[in-house]
């Protein structure tokens, strides 16, 4: 029981990043297929809303017919929009969830005069719940489930007070529906949350907790693709510790690991807040960030100087190379190695010059 409670607490308190999954799907070419699936379900909802208009137990009044017709039209619009538009930002996705939840409740309550026939429609809350489970936080999922259960429960009560109702069968149907509405999305959400956590850990270097090469590859396109309307500088740095093999030989691997962790902590503090810092392997680090053109030297100096600290148990220095690209537009998508290569070349120039120095290289301004 304690293990289950601990698992629930871990799930509830887990960090949530809405943008992570759309970026993950986009990187793997799955964004369009997933958006097509969401659009297909919207169209299915729209078709159901149209079909109920032709049922002898359809909407009980003209107003109800108009409302269901509007819901059908909006569902068809959403179905056409989802596959063709980019993945929505979080606030629009939340509005979409509100629309589907409220629209489903309206359709269930007013789509047919036969409440018993409407009860199975509550099962479609499972589909909405699956979307919420994959895309949104535990708190959002909890609100959705509470709303869906309240719709199902009130509908069940309204059926129960009617004449000639088989109460045991009705309760059984309602329990099955409520179980599906709750358990499927919660199980899916927990699974996705833990998979996200494992995926994030796979992008981290276990020794320093910085991004590893795979993590840099994953995050670099997001950073380098940031749109802007002003001139920006894209800075790529390689920081390679000097004579690290000798440090390991003299102080052992424990001393080397301690030096790497200390350097990594200071580098992470020196990189701008929205920049990236990672360990490429061994004693080599990479930093990628955007800054204003008049901050070039100050930013790169701060990162290079962060390596050495006289107070360290094993002080060390570094040879650093910085590649600076100034352009009016965000950089185009390219492989991480292509981005790192110019900075790597500058770093080796610093090595050949004796180490403990920073060499900067820049590309011509785009369009110049």
From TrEMBL:
The keyword Transmembrane applies. One of its GO terms (molecular function) is diguanylate cyclase activity. It holds the Pfam family GGDEF. InterPro entries: Diguanylate_Cyclase, GGDEF_dom, Nucleotide_cyclase, Rev_trsase/Diguanyl_cyclase. GO terms for biological process: cell adhesion involved in single-species biofilm formation; negative regulation of bacterial-type flagellum-dependent cell motility. The keyword Transmembrane helix applies. Residues 232-363 form the GGDEF domain. One of its GO terms (cellular component) is plasma membrane. The chain crosses the membrane at residues 36-55, 61-80, 92-110, 116-134, 141-163, 169-195. It comes from the Bacteria. Keywords: Membrane, Transmembrane, Transmembrane helix. SUPFAM superfamilies: Nucleotide cyclase. PANTHER family: DIGUANYLATE CYCLASE DGCM-RELATED, REGULATORY COMPONENTS OF SENSORY TRANSDUCTION SYSTEM. This is GGDEF domain-containing protein. It comes from Antrihabitans stalactiti.
